[in-house]
């Protein structure tokens, strides 16, 4: 029986397996769709091991907040196609539901029992690699909590409830009105998603990051031919007026409603304090962008499709 591209497409949509794997499954089962599904499932963990060297830079960010606690998880897959697979999304959602109890400890998260299963999260992910046919991994997890106030969340490029391509948690500590705090927290989370600050305050910036910028500014200032003491003042001035305003949350220009492109986050916070009726402190934020820092390999989808015709 001839295996057509439409048959491969139907099997891939049903299982999330790779295109070549789907073609092989249909060839081996003489085009029987149900047997092909079983053939893919029977590949087992040995198949998962062969895929471990593939770059998994797609996937989803999962977020959850409850009772002044929030957690965030990044689960990677090889393709965006699999990230849209309901099975994969349910797996990410289930793993995210466990994350609040590990407080950012990835190893603990991987060791927990997967909901509704008798295996660990790590082992269930391996089973899913075999079932779906792509390399996957739970890459990282973060945590935010407050004793009083709210932990707000925001998901950008939303794929489903609590799932997307960029996720932000922000801890807003305050005794103020919860509804006002929640509204401010969400606006702040949206700002963080767009502006990608490095720290809440300048004091929280890593020394290595500051020294790197200082070195660049110093070399540029030396070209002016000015005296060393003047150069030092020029450098410190640029750090305060340029660098800190770019990467320090409180000093960034607020991108949300009410900022008008003129107010800093710190100024908007002061206004929010009046609405909430109490002081507000931003104690922590966590921002995950899907695949950031992962070296991706260029893929050729057209070439992959062409292989099916051979």
Predict the CATH topology of the largest domain: Tetrahydropterin Synthase, Chain A
Estimated share of beta-strand residues: 15-25%
Helix proportion range: 40-55%
Net shape: elongated
Rounded Rg: 24 Å
What is the CATH first-level class name of the largest domain?
Alpha Beta
Structure description:
The protein has about 300 residues and is α+β, with helices and mostly antiparallel strands. The protein folds into 3 domains: about 5-55 and about 295-310, Helicase, Ruva Protein, domain 3, CATH 1.10.8.10; about 60-195, Tetrahydropterin Synthase, Chain A (2-Layer Sandwich); about 200-275, no CATH class. The chain contains 13 helices and 7 strands. It has a 4-stranded antiparallel β-sheet. Strand 1 (about 60-65) and strand 2 form a beta hairpin. Helix 10 packs across helix 11. The longest helix has 20 residues, at about 230-245. The model is unreliable at about 45-55 and about 305-310 (pLDDT under 50).
Features:
Tetrahydropterin Synthase, Chain A; 3 domains; elongated; 47% helix; four-stranded antiparallel sheet; three-stranded antiparallel sheet; alpha+beta
Quick structural gist:
With about 300 residues, the protein is of the alpha+beta class. Helices cover about 45% and strands about 20% of the residues. Strands 3-2-1-5 form a 4-stranded antiparallel sheet. The protein has a 3-stranded antiparallel sheet with strand order 4-6-7, with helices on one face.
């Amino acid at each position: 029986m001839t295996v057509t591209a439409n048959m491969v497409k139907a099997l891939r949509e049903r299982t999330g397996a790779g295109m070549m794997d789907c073609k092989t499954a249909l060839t081996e089962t003489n085009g029987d769709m149900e047997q092909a599904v079983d053939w893919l499932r029977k590949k087992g963990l040995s198949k998962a091991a062969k895929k471990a060297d593939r770059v998994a830079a797609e996937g989803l960010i999962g977020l959850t907040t409850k009772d002044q606690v929030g957690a965030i998880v990044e689960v990677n897959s090889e393709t965006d196609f699999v990230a849209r697979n309901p099975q994969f999304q349910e797996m990410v959602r289930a793993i995210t539901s466990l994350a609040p109890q590990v407080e950012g400890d990835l190893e603990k998260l991987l060791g927990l029992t997967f909901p509704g299963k008798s295996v660990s999260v790590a082992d269930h992910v391996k089973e899913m690699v075999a079932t779906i046919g792509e390399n996957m991994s739970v890459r990282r997890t973060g945590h935010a909590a407050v004793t009083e106030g709210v932990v707000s969340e925001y998901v950008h490029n939303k794929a489903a409830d609590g799932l997307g391509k960029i996720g932000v948690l922000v801890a807003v500590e305050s005794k103020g009105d919860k509804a006002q705090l929640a509204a401010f927290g969400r606006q702040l989370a949206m700002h963080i998603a767009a502006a990608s600050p490095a720290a809440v305050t300048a004091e929280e910036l890593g020394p290595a990051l500051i020294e790197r910028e200082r070195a660049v500014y110093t070399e540029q200032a030396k070209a002016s031919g000015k005296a060393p003491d003047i150069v030092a003042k020029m450098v410190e001035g640029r750090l305060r007026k340029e660098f800190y305003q770019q990467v320090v949350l409180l000093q960034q220009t607020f991108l949300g409603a009410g900022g008008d492109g003129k107010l800093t986050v710190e100024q908007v916070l002061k206004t929010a304090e009046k609405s909430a009726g109490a002081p507000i402190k931003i104690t922590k934020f966590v921002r995950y962008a899907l695949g950031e820092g992962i070296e991706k390999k260029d893929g050729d989808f057209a070439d992959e499709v062409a292989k099916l015709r051979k």
